[in-house]
Write a structure and sequence with these properties.
This protein has seven helices and no strands. It has 178 residues and is mostly helical. It has helices spanning 23-37, 46-50, 55-59, 69-87, 96-99, 108-127, 145-175.
Length: 178
């Protein structure tokens, strides 16, 4: 008996044939959106990891010397902006202050908005790419556009996992368990 589709797999994703000239761009965009919006096969997407996080949770540091959820959100936004600039041919390397900006609970709404805005901006840049551009350096002397684009997908997934770890640490601290 065939399984009924679960909620996680019921959302439609673009499908591209390998022989399609735009197939690689379509697959890249599907991965980009899956990592950020979901559903993802591995676990929660960035959006799913952030769902229900409060401002105080975003500012909490449940693991000593680790970044907060809010700092990670601003960091992801910074690197989406960096990759968008690079793919557009503008060299950009964030400063240390830009890489992990200071975060306070009162910044939570703005931080989430910034992440969504930078995600949309990078998606627009990626959607305008031609397949020939994928193999060329994003900027002179830099890595290929393909690596930059896939790198931002990996970056989102890495930080979604970190956010889930921080959420678990917050829950453990709240319940008094170890």
């Amino acid at each position: 008996m065939p399984r009924s589709p679960s909620r996680r797999t019921s959302r439609k994703r673009p499908v591209a044939r390998a022989s399609s000239p735009a197939g690689e761009i379509t697959r890249l965009l599907a991965l980009f959106e899956s990592a950020f919006e979901g559903p993802s096969w591995h676990g929660p997407s960035v959006r799913e990891a952030l769902k229900g996080v409060t401002a105080s949770q975003a500012a909490a540091r449940p693991i000593a010397h680790a970044h907060t959820i809010g700092e990670l959100v601003l960091h992801m936004a910074t690197w989406k902006r960096a990759v968008a600039n690079r793919i557009a041919g503008r060299p950009y390397s964030p400063s240390a202050a830009e890489n992990f900006p200071e975060f306070r609970a009162r910044d939570w709404t703005r931080a989430r908005s910034t992440l969504r805005r930078e995600h949309r901006a990078l998606r627009a840049v990626l959607s305008r790419l031609g397949t020939a551009r994928l193999s060329r350096p994003a900027v002179p002397g830099g890595s290929a556009v393909y690596l930059q684009a896939h790198g931002v997908v990996h970056h989102d997934l890495w930080h979604a996992g970190q956010i889930m770890t921080l959420r678990r640490a917050l829950e453990t601290a709240k319940s008094g368990r170890r």
